[in-house]
Amino acid sequence: MDASSSPQALIGPRFKRMANAIRALSVDAINKIQTGHPGLPLGAADMATVLFTQFLKFDPKNPDWADRDRFVLSAGHGSMLMYSLGYLNGYEAMTLDDIKTFRRLGSRAMGHPEVDLEIGVEATTGPLGQGVGMAVGMALAERMMRERYGSDLVDHYTYALVGDGCLMEGISYEATALAGHWGLDKLIVLFDDNGISIDGPTSLATSENQQARFEAAGWDWQAVDGHDPEAVAAAIAKAKTTSTPSIIACKTTIGLGMPVKEGTAAAHGQPPTDAEATAARASYEWDYAPFEVPEDILADWRAAGARGSVDQAAWKARLDAADASTRDEFLGAIAGELPAGWQDIIDAVKREFAEDPKDEPTRQSSQKVMSKLIPAIPTMIGGSADLTPSNLSRPDAVRAISRDNFAGRYIHFGIREHAMAAITNGIALHKGFLPFCATFMCFSDYCRPAIRLSALMKQKVLYIMTHDTITQGPDGPTHQPVEHFATFRATPNMLSLRPADAAEVAECWELALEAEDMPVAMILTREKVPAVRSGHSEENLCRRGAYVFAEASAKAEVTLLSTGSEVSVALGAKKLLEEKGVPTRVVSMPCLSLFDKQDADYRASILGTDTLRVSVEAATVYGWEKYVGPDGLIIGLDGFGAAGMPDELMEHFGITPKAVAAAVEARLAKTKA
Amino acid sequence: MDASSSPQALIGPRFKRMANAIRALSVDAINKIQTGHPGLPLGAADMATVLFTQFLKFDPKNPDWADRDRFVLSAGHGSMLMYSLGYLNGYEAMTLDDIKTFRRLGSRAMGHPEVDLEIGVEATTGPLGQGVGMAVGMALAERMMRERYGSDLVDHYTYALVGDGCLMEGISYEATALAGHWGLDKLIVLFDDNGISIDGPTSLATSENQQARFEAAGWDWQAVDGHDPEAVAAAIAKAKTTSTPSIIACKTTIGLGMPVKEGTAAAHGQPPTDAEATAARASYEWDYAPFEVPEDILADWRAAGARGSVDQAAWKARLDAADASTRDEFLGAIAGELPAGWQDIIDAVKREFAEDPKDEPTRQSSQKVMSKLIPAIPTMIGGSADLTPSNLSRPDAVRAISRDNFAGRYIHFGIREHAMAAITNGIALHKGFLPFCATFMCFSDYCRPAIRLSALMKQKVLYIMTHDTITQGPDGPTHQPVEHFATFRATPNMLSLRPADAAEVAECWELALEAEDMPVAMILTREKVPAVRSGHSEENLCRRGAYVFAEASAKAEVTLLSTGSEVSVALGAKKLLEEKGVPTRVVSMPCLSLFDKQDADYRASILGTDTLRVSVEAATVYGWEKYVGPDGLIIGLDGFGAAGMPDELMEHFGITPKAVAAAVEARLAKTKA
């Protein structure tokens, strides 16, 4: 829908009043609760009004319409813009009551936008720059979906509204470089160019030429007066015609209408006083009570909000007319369904692993599983931050995407871990794909703000994290995760899986695919591990998070709790201990959070009662007291790793069968003494 | 020293042979151990030889000479370049034996460079992009030191060698934007422009115009043939004359000389086979045994390495001739000394706090302490990632630096948390300052890779982390740290301090300033906390990490372990419990790692024996079992926070005096039942 077919006149009092409705609601909400960020909603109301009334394709009655345009408020602190728009556009779930209780517990008008399609919020934003990355991911997903299903079913734009903060963040450069590289022409960014950040004028901290910067990344750049609706509309119309992603710098006044604060850093995050709210309303010529939107303006907004229903109905008709297999595949992809019988693949791989057990790195076992899953699960796509041959994240047959080929299923993200994770979040949010991404576990640090958002947004993103501990060896401590184990496990709503060998890898992949509404970290070794599981198990033994891997030869005196590559260390220690007459059990704990969910009896039966409990994991000792108890022994690292060959390091840090057995014996002797 | 005064001829067989000495040593070392990254040392040997023999001001006999030029190998995987240079230049601590045991445990030639001045390694690198940030920090430190002490004492360049990986990382954009903004003209980056990354040609993942990108950020750009020593020398000479930071793209062939692998991704990280090593040596016309450097070439190198001793001696003479107070101040700053009597300031602040106790946010108490410390400690400098008025990290009287004024002591980093932390690392590594930086605790995620390096490099960087939990409230879960508490505490070699009120803030600042060889996180509240400590304590009660804050009225049944703002919650719960006849102790635990270092008796005396132990902290429950034991109670968050007013949230999550008391009573009832 272009500007000419709009039901709204772009100039004159009605436009201004529509934009001022956003402003008034924002002022009122923030004034009432006395917390929030007026700067952006007041400054960006005009550009948002142009976008939402003239361009954005959406239907508040069908908020999850798959072919809607996406809009991401990357500058998430301006959340009142979203809630004002949600209410004005006619999303039933966004009520005036929510706005009146903005930022209160239980209000749908939360402090920062949290993904909630029913009110038109596509992504959780606030941590700056994330929205840029997610918008790139959505635009990429659209392009890949369009390649698969044709433009009858998939043909939409992705818009993002960003501020100076988003553009200063490193992640925004990474993401825009990729968008330019891929030529994502249906990505349009509106830059709220108000020249102000929290510390003051942006000139305090930046003198970058934004135009040159974006052009260097292959973007189209325009600059307009952000308070001139016709200029903004013309710029968006032009941006829709470019063959590259576009950014439109909209020069605005932050906090427009607030006396004194307007145009200053104080407008960013300081709520207006009652007097300021009154003065602001007066400057908008808004002669209504707080939270009142006059009927004619509301009607204008609702008409604008309703206009997408025509497109939505036409799209629905096209979907209904599509051949059944295309429709089913499309709808299944959007719903995140896996093809029937996918578990059989896992089962077959497990049987293969059992019949021909191989000592190999778990990253390699994982690649074998992926090489079976990817052909069978068409929605599975993903890539690596330039560690493909190390992460083993790309089965041979999988082709990469490029600017000229969006039929591929592998993504070369470059050395951009942070944007990789945010883009993968955007792909997941868009729906239609089951996305994965890969890097060294240690460099999950670079992805952390985006990983956190995966968990907070309940998005199923698969993080393939290889080179999982000091056994990655000679690269040294810069590349050896230590504290990361605690970070992953302490992150709410996230599954962290660390399989011990090929069989557990297959089982963990099953758990990863089964996971709902949460990201998954698949933590894998660089180095070869022995195939410790013998024979095929129908049951997924990893499902309960921990299980007895090897029973003691007699009434157990010791329980060794271990994960990943250290399960084989524990088995070696058990052998030595048993030889010395110490009956020892070995427990494999591929997923602590799943284990924590089991009932107390199960947990006690696994952890062992009346035995010395010893954890063996070549990572931070932090957190293991929960499992070994106050009298247990924790074998791990209380410092960083070191550079050396894997065997040297395991010996140095006392994580060999011999060292574990010796530590256990010493403890037992001390206890008995 | 410019090219004309060089003892080396730039063209002809001697230059080539000198550069090939780097190549041969690198090939031999990587071939022998069969792990490492030959691509960079072989590709960048020419440019490095030009830089080290013609330009770099350094003295292997005085490796910590304060006015040496700094060189940072940001592309740290090319570590054999550093070790070859170290040996060839005559750093005694870098021996051929180290090179022969490259990447083995105990070798000084570690997998990636780890800061070690005695072998010429200025910074730990490997995690890509960090070196760019640290180099910017070093260049900034130089500029600020020069402002203070004059160019007689401080006048050096900072060089960084970066690869495509560094330049794709978001942190490099953030850091280069700041370097351009500040106009750091003595910063010169050599870009090893080989067009190859691990996944293949860089064209797989990028099509950015690097020249335009750097020019947009205010840098001077040159591009030369990186194997043409005269061209490289001319470019460096020109770069030294610009009024902006400079980058020189040196077009090189990765892995030059390795058959088949040369010019391909395989050269990056695959060690040469014996046959490839032989072929490579042949291509260098290097007719020597492995690890053999002929005497004439070694002599050339040693002569080049020794040439800085003249400059060093001249500098030393200038230092000796300087007036005593300047010299003492300069040397004290470099040594990281604090002015005598600084503890008296802490003591005076503590007394003020005790005499006029105020309920205030701990970030505000911290600002009060800083406002006393900064005038008294001239080396203290720092800034915020655009959250100055929220972090309260800038006492009023402190002026900011700018391109035109490097006498200031406050740094507006813009919304660039990651570069902020890396730059702060660079300032610390440079020496001369005690640097701090600030952001919301939740956004420590953006700084994580650099925070990790602070700890690994043992650098004293003060991280001021405000808005420390759900009490930051209405911004919602995107801004509320949860798992971060576990991350900080699990990070080796880092002090995490979370004071309960103004008195503890002052004490924690004392601990922060006393800390040696480690970074410190000062974790502070946004919200007001009661002044819970009464009276003045001569002793720093926080020093042992935890102490009994309030004894029980009778033999204790319960010990409440709490930190930060939750100490007052615990005190409220104690009151309620005591009223119900349950004698209750309250322990404040501002620093778990310091507490862990105390002897067993002290720890037992604090944690309490024969009492129910209950932790109260509005953050992840992960890790508290260590302190409460298997029968204890952990009150905290097992999920993310939520948007709401602080009181609403504490009530919602059950972290109020009433809720804590009720949970304790319920547990006691269960235990007794």
UniProtKB/TrEMBL annotation, chains A, B:
It catalyses: D-sedoheptulose 7-phosphate + D-glyceraldehyde 3-phosphate = aldehydo-D-ribose 5-phosphate + D-xylulose 5-phosphate. Pathway: Carbohydrate degradation; pentose phosphate pathway; Carbohydrate biosynthesis; Calvin cycle. Transmembrane segments: none annotated. Pfam families: Transket_pyr, Transketolase_C_1, Transketolase_N. Binds 1 thiamine pyrophosphate per subunit. During the reaction, the substrate forms a covalent intermediate with the cofactor. Binds 1 Mg(2+) ion per subunit. Can also utilize other divalent metal cations, such as Ca(2+), Mn(2+) and Co(2+). Residues 360-531 form the Transketolase-like pyrimidine-binding domain. Its cofactor is Ca(2+); Co(2+); thiamine diphosphate; Mg(2+). One of its GO terms (cellular component) is cytosol. The active site is at 417 (proton donor). Thiamine diphosphate binds at residues 77, 126-128, 165, 194, 268, 443. Belongs to the transketolase family. This is Transketolase. It comes from Aliiruegeria lutimaris.
